[in-house]
Amino acid sequence: xxxxxxxxxxxxxxxxxxxxVPYTRNQHLVKSSRIIGEILAKKQAQMGTNAVSSxxxxxxxxxxxxxxxxxxxxxxxxxxxxxxxxxxxxGVGFVGGYEKYGTWHETLDFTSGELETINVEPAHEMNAVPxxxxxxxxxxxxxxxxxxxxxxxxxxxxxxQIVDSVSKDxxxxxxxxxxxxxxxxxxxxxxxxxLMHADMLDFEVTLSRRGTGSKTPYFSHLMFRYGLxxxxxIIIPVDIPRNTEGISLLDYxxxxxxxxxxxxxxxxxxxxxxxxxxxxxxxxxxxxVTEVQPFHAVGTHISADVTCRFVQPYEAVNRVPA
Length: 322
Known about the structure:
Among the domains are: 50-62 and 234-319, no CATH class; 108-227, Jelly Rolls. The chain is globular, with a radius of gyration of 29 Å. The protein has helices at 2-19, 25-53, 189-193, 242-248; strands at residues 57-65, 98-100, 103-108, 116-118, 120-122, 133-135, 141-149, 157-165, 170-178, 185-186, 200-209, 218-227, 236-239, 260-265, 277-280, 285-297, 300-310. The protein is α+β, with helices and mostly antiparallel strands and 322 residues long.
């Protein structure tokens, strides 16, 4: 009886262990087929949506409002909101203000880390926004230097901007080089494009004046933006319902300052939030997102209906390089 009981116990144990195997071979095949089917369905749905948005497309750039990053000098120690007059953050509070889809931007200004200065100091007494840099009293020449590590990119400079204040007796000049070389060249959008292959770029900003009695020049900041995607890929195809566009009377210039526009976008942009911006290339107009209705199918983001308002000509975002 004892031996028989042991054998029965082992038989039960073996049967229980076998039953706990999660999938048989056929079950694995069924699961794999289901996963492949879901992937194909998602891809087909996305392709269909992309085709719809490209039938009667309008071309836009998308700018995401920054919610983190280097705090702008106009907001440092300021208990109130950032300044709408600031050309470094455009009232957002973080340097740069907005991130253009498919690109990366850098800004050299008073808030830059490891900023090297010679005979240059911040002009706090002016209470300007953003904080300006000036020559120290008694100096005819001064220098600011800063470096930026480059990301892997598509080989073109999308925008370059220098913001300063000069007169006939003073000047601000900016040169750039690939780190580790001595080949300084003038910093402009064309020369910046030739340096997109570099791992790191050095900038040198020189402030000079004719004599110590002359007014000092002021330097605010420089900004450069380069493409992570190709120039075609950063353009967002958007479908605008004809009835909506007709009501806004874009072709005639009526009511566009007070109206809104509905946009249909595909899944190129996964997240759109209120406060983000679209730039209508054809119309040279900025639109601010006020409402977003995303659409999901087969468990994935397919498209979104976005309602935007027309940005007024006096608003700060109009100064963002598009």
